[in-house]
Amino acid sequence: MDDFWTVGLLSLALTSSALALACVKLKYVSDQRDTLQARLETSLLDNEELKKIALYDHLTGLPNRVLLEDRMHQVIAKSRRAGGQFVVLFLDLDCFKAINDQFGHAAGDFLLTQVAQRLSATMRHQDTIARLGGDEFIVIAETGTASNACSVRDKAAGCFSAPFMVAGKLMQLDASIGHARYPDDGQSLSELLDRADIDMYSGKKAKSADHLGLSTFENP
After folding, report:
1. What is the pLDDT of residue 20?
2. Which residues are annotated as catalytic?
3. Who contacts 58 (Cβ-Cβ below 8 Å, separation ≥6)?
4. Residue 69, Cα to own-chain centre: how many angstroms?
5. What's the sign of the alpha-carbon dihedral 91, 156, 183, 131?
6. What is the signed CA dihedral for 143, 144, 150, 152, rounded to 10 degrees?
7. Each residue of 67-93: b (16+ CB within 10 Å) or e?
8. Helices in the chain by DSSP H: which ranges?
9. How many CB atoms lie within 10 A of CB 196?
10. d(C-alpha 210, C-alpha 21), whole Å
11. Which has the closest alpha carbon to 93: 73, 78, 107?
12. How many CB atoms lie within 10 A of CB 11?
């Protein structure tokens, strides 16, 4: 009888030890799973951050040149398949250098963010708005006719109808805007950007020196 109880107690002890070991292993597996999940989430966040850095302008949050080129290739391919049309706008602020020289780069950066916000709020959500660099912005908008392309240009120009805040003062600014239409003005990314750039500079040269200067600013 004593042997029977001894065997029973030993068996129970072994079972308890096995259960305890199993619990430890389950806890270890659970901890490893949580650690792996945390690492995976961190990796995904890091990848998203790297993607944002690579494809978006750090100041305005708009697509940069890399993403702009990708969007342009996509809309060209789509337009070729469907026989569609689109317009490329090239915007350049008329007195940005003067603002940087007189008020500093922080004031210039804040102005760029305001321009980006107005363009984003004014254009359609399916349009691409990008910062090419410096004070240059690009808009890509699908259109049906030449008159629609002019309407897109007018919408972009309307972003400059109200004054901007520069160094604590309201100032009236303007931008020179050139445009190029696919397929009439070009059928490749470089052709369309070059044509819109030339058109923009043509318009800038046609403006008077006074119009491009700081005398156009309106202080409250």
Report:
1. 66
2. 135
3. none
4. 13
5. positive
6. -30
7. bbeebbeebbeebeeeeebbbbbbbbb
8. 2-55, 65-82, 96-103, 105-122, 146-158, 189-206, 209-212
9. 24
10. 85
11. 107
12. 10
Mean pLDDT, rounded, of the chain = 84
Q: How many CB atoms lie within 10 A of CB 56?
A: 17
Tell me how far apart the alpha carbons of residues 149 and 182 are, in angstroms, rounded to a whole number: 10
Tell me which amino acid residue 152 is: V
Instruction: Please check whether residue 173 is in contact with residue 219, taking contact to mean a CB–CB distance below 8 angstroms.
Output: no
169 token code pair: 């003062």
* Model pLDDT for residues 182-219, shown as the tens digit of each residue: 999 999 999 999 999 999 999 988 886 555 554 444 44
Rounded to the nearest 10°, the torsion over CA 64, 66, 72, 75 is -100
Question: Residue 55: phi, psi to the nearest 5?
Answer: -115, -10
pLDDT digits 0-9 by tens, 106-136:
999 999 999 999 999 999 999 999 999 999 9
**What is the pTM assigned to this prediction?**
0.76
